[in-house]
Design goal:
Layout lengths: L2 H5 L10 H8 L5 H17 L10 H12 L1 H6 L15 H13 L3 H27 L1 H12 L2 H6 L6 H21 L2 H18 L7 H11 L4 H28 L16 H15 L32 H4 L3 H14 L8 H22 L13 H17 L4 H22 L7 H19 L6 H27 L7 E2 L7 E2 L13 H8 L5 E6 L1 H11 L3 E4 L11 H9 L3 E8 L8 H11 L2 E4 L2 E5 L8
Parallel strand pairs: 3-4, 3-5
Antiparallel strand pairs: 1-2, 5-7, 6-7
Helix pairs in contact: 3-7, 3-8, 4-6, 4-23, 6-7, 7-8, 7-10, 7-18, 8-18, 8-21, 10-11, 10-12, 11-13, 12-17, 16-17, 16-18, 16-19, 17-18, 18-19, 19-20, 19-21, 20-21
Length: about 625
């Protein structure tokens, strides 16, 4: 990666990049078997004990179940097959899981299978993207680093939208790299389309990588500036189309015949995108606690904001294992290639994955609204790409003293930081961090004293360096994958920690066998209604019946209104109202509904829950 190394390698200077170089030189015989091993091992890790988490996050599982029963519910991402209210995210990830459920039957395995496959696909695409700029070895290291990131081992076995989001963002990066080969408009538009579908997965978070994609194409595409700008405009059009078709469909659909858009204040996905799930996440506000204030002081909500947030108690064990090495590789690489021609592919790769990492990390570090530790899975591909490229390029240029020193610094920083991270769980495999520290010292010493100049010893040293760098995150990822995780805020590690609602969280008393048997015996459109999705989800999943989640996620959305609920009852479409759950007297109407039911129907106790039979009694309004 040194300036001398760059200038002596004409393959890095010409307008035809790594793709053509690979085609003409051919692949070494070890490449395809190595890639196969990587992908098979990734699949084994993510598919292993896949159903251990049960329904994982009940909130999304409830919507997946609804999507297997009703096509309209699948399209909108409704929480129930009767289409009262949607989840507070776009539905793209639900489409995959619900279609899998329709094909294989709804179960924990069928729901989580698409996300595990998204993980394998992400690793494959990351390998392919890095290989085109830095060769197969860098691609293999990057792919392995992504697969073995603990938060990746967590989220690719979970049912939150993040698995599909990561796949789409990596797909966008791969398409951008392909576009750099010959200034391809088609590939660049595919990159835009991938991020557009990313928006339909988790809204504006998909766009955090946009600055990196645009920058690398503007800098390194082998064509004139005017054409580069026009091509970027075309990619923006593709992004808008891929994003907007579903939003337009929702806007044109009569509001009285579709579900309420959960989490929005005006029943539109655009307000959701730029309000609760957009600027609200960055700057905080109603429904977006975080940033160290109140509940946000808890690590599950990110803790205090600041430059080192990604290394702190909330995020460090999820994502930061290779972050020091990645930042060192990016900074050194950009310095070493500062005089390289515009079309240099090493610098282009560093801008791509470095821009991805820096922008995403800074936004996560300083956003004041709701953020959870598992969000950082979106950082994993950028960090992995930098680690793979940096390790290989610095190894190639190690004859340059500066490159050798930087490589040693990368290894030392990784070993020391991983030692510190492992010490945060002192009761779990305490020997591992000491073994890691000794191995790091041996590898760094061997590198500094030129052991790599001895051919066989050099190979051993290189392998030892990769193993040492990945040892700690790999161990933590494997133990994470072996655990079941439930709830709305899962975390990685040996304890299978989770927090939040769903998956046996709050309201667990409402899933008693007596109550479930009661709901199973109903024949109405909805077996029951209750305040908030966290209570409704357990009822729906355990009884396999339709349940209205009054007010959506937290019971605060105005769906259904009291008047609408009265109409459902008058038409005999709901059998029971189950008291409790999350909700209050706010504008969502859940409190008003609870009060109206209590005033007009007789309560009974079933399995510890207060239940009202809405098919009997005399209503008064």
């Amino acid at each position: 990666m040194s300036t001398a190394a760059v200038s002596s390698d004409p393959a890095r200077l010409g307008p035809v990049p790594a793709a053509a170089r690979t085609r003409t030189a051919g692949r070494p015989p070890w490449v395809r078997p190595s890639v196969a091993v990587l992908l098979v091992a990734t699949a084994a890790l993510y598919l292993w004990n896949l159903s251990a988490s049960g329904y994982a996050n009940d909130f999304y599982a409830m919507a997946v179940q609804a999507g297997t029963k009703n096509w309209e519910a699948l399209f909108f991402g409704s929480l129930d097959p009767g289409n009262v209210i949607t989840v507070d995210k776009p539905p793209a990830s639900l489409w995959l899981m619900a279609l899998s459920g329709r094909l294989l039957g709804f179960s924990s395995f069928s729901m989580l299978l698409p996300n595990a496959l998204c993980g394998v696909g992400s690793v494959a695409l990351l390998y392919a993207a890095v290989r085109r700029t830095s060769g197969p070895l860098a691609g293999l290291i990057a792919g392995a680093a992504l697969a073995l990131t603990p938060v990746a081992a967590l989220m690719f076995k979970f049912n939150n939208p993040d698995a599909l989001l990561v796949l789409l963002m990596v797909a966008g990066a791969y398409c951008t790299v392909r576009a750099l080969d010959r200034a391809s408009t088609g590939w660049l538009m595919l990159a835009g389309a991938a991020l557009g579908f990313g928006f339909l997965t988790k809204m504006l978070q998909a766009f955090l990588v946009l600055p990196a994609f645009a920058l690398v194409y503007l800098v390194a595409a082998p064509t004139g500036l005017g054409r580069r700008l026009l091509q970027l405009l075309g990619a923006a059009v593709a992004l808008v189309v891929a994003t907007g078709w579903w939003i337009v469909a929702v806007a044109l659909w009569p509001t009285e015949s579709r579900p309420y858009i959960g989490g929005s204040t005006d029943n539109t996905p655009l307000e959701l995108a730029f309000g609760y799930n957009g600027l609200g996440r960055i700057f905080g506000g109603d429904g977006n606690g975080g940033g160290g204030g109140g509940m946000g002081g808890n690590t599950m909500f990110g803790g205090e904001t600041g430059l080192f947030r990604m290394f702190g108690a909330a995020f460090g064990l999820e994502i930061s294992w290779l972050l020091p090495a990645a930042l060192i590789a990016m900074a050194a690489g950009l310095w070493f290639t500062r005089f390289a021609p515009r079309l240099d592919r090493t610098r282009a790769a560093l801008l791509l994955w470095g821009g991805w990492t820096v922008v995403t990390a800074l936004v996560f570090s300083f956003m004041s609204g709701t953020i959870h530790p598992y969000y950082t899975v979106a950082l994993a591909p950028g960090i992995a790409g930098l680690a793979g490229i940096g390790a290989v390029e610095l190894w190639r240029g190690r004859r340059n003293f500066a490159a050798r020193i930087v490589l040693a610094l990368m290894l030392a920083a990784t070993g020391v930081w991983d030692f510190i991270l492992l010490a945060r769980t002192p009761d779990w495999q305490p020997w591992l961090r000491w073994v890691l520290l000794v191995l790091t010292a041996l590898v760094v010493t061997g590198l500094l004293f030129g052991l790599d100049r001895i051919r066989r010893a050099g190979i051993v040293l290189a392998v030892a360096g990769v193993v040492t760098g990945l040892l700690a995150p790999a161990a933590y990822a494997v133990v994470t994958a072996s655990q079941g995780h439930t709830g709305s805020i899962p975390t990685s590690g040996p304890s299978g920690n989770s927090m939040g609602f769903g998956g046996g969280g709050f309201g667990g008393g409402q899933t008693s066998s007596e109550l479930i048997s009661l709901l199973k015996a109903t024949t109405t459109k909805w077996s029951a209604a209750t305040n908030g999705s966290q209570s409704a989800a357990g009822l729906a999943l355990n009884s396999d019946t339709a349940v209205i989640a009054i007010g959506g996620f937290n019971g605060g959305d105005p769906a259904p209104t009291l008047d609408e609920f009265k109409q459902y009852v008058a038409r005999g479409e709901i059998t029971y109202y189950v008291s409790g759950g999350m909700g209050g007297m706010g504008p969502g109407g859940s409190g008003e509904i609870a009060q109206w039911v209590a005033e007009n129907f007789t309560a009974q106790t079933v399995g510890g829950s207060t239940v009202y039979d809405l098919t009997t009694g005399t209503t008064t309004g």
